[in-house]
Amino acid sequence: MMTGSFSAEHRQKDIMALTNPMNPVNPMPMGPWKITVYDQEYFQGKRMEFTACCQNIMECGMENIRSLKVECGAWVGYEHSSFCGQQFVLEKGDYPRFEAYSGSNSYRIERMISFRPICSASHKESRMTIYEKENMIGRQFEMCDDYPSLQAMGWFNNEVGSMHIQSGAFVCYQFPGYRGHQYIMECDCHGGEYKCYREFGSHAQTPQIQSIRRIQH
Amino acid sequence: MMTGSFSAEHRQKDIMALTNPMNPVNPMPMGPWKITVYDQEYFQGKRMEFTACCQNIMECGMENIRSLKVECGAWVGYEHSSFCGQQFVLEKGDYPRFEAYSGSNSYRIERMISFRPICSASHKESRMTIYEKENMIGRQFEMCDDYPSLQAMGWFNNEVGSMHIQSGAFVCYQFPGYRGHQYIMECDCHGGEYKCYREFGSHAQTPQIQSIRRIQH
Question: Which parts of the sequence belong to the Beta/gamma crystallin 'Greek key' domain (chains A, B) (predicted)?
Fold first, then answer.
């Protein structure tokens, strides 16, 4: 039930490899990717389609993104240009309003200015290790499933000191049940190593992580 | 790494069977359950512990719940008394503010007045079938995993007409990536049958469902 034939996907992979500066050496691309963004809610107003990353939607003549449809692949949206600020994981489906893609955060930013494909996302083959302390030391746990509550699976507190993504991509959340700040973790960024919470994302202020799941492509 | 010995769990099951009116014939209780609620943010103010359902927190002398900790089991919180209104799935962990348990909704209610254990929750043994149309007809798909995007797994649009929970419990969401309105679906409520979207929950206004996952106990 996947879209596109093998050869079409293969061409798309070649295109992505050439056009996606975030992912120059992705060993296992899973294309194709397609996202359609709108400057008004409910898929109204100005409309643009993308098959690769966008560093600043304002440079494309769009002031902000107020609704979007992911048609192929998994993406990450960012609050600011150049892939900075709050992160929003975007999987296939319809997002008619800001609330549909922002998640639950303490401050309600209503901006998504840049976005890019998550090239290593693989729902079937994602594997990571979480560690109690920074620099991959202390207690550890290996994960290859989705965990809406790390504490329910036996993790000892509400923090993760560091992590190593061996394959695929995960999204980590501040609160249980996939709520709060989101941190996208990929095997092909930082060599898959996130040595302290400051490397989780430019918006990370604490090592608090209470749920983790694979990203679906 | 589970808390409590077998015999302690067993006693708790007996207690739950006697004290939980929401679940008189649960065939496979998974206790114990424990939730601590506070009337101020960050686990401050008045504090109360519960091991069974609470139909109206105001009758316990608490005006509202502004933070909570789930210590054992999976729970569902409700906007209104008597288990009505918006639903919030609550798995083990710390929820320091309203945003931590509400999820992303278009209207920001800040009320949680009743709650109860999800007795059938089982991360390992949950199985359900979703159907295209009301009354379990049309295209169907059997699920026993977590799906942050139904469309990425091959489902044909952003709606689910009806569903049947064969075992365990699931939470369905309006938007991809576990966002938007939440609907808790249990094998031991309605005989596990949800024949149209009006049975999804008292707050359901459309059959729009774009992500579904098991509930973790």
Answer: 73-119, 126-167
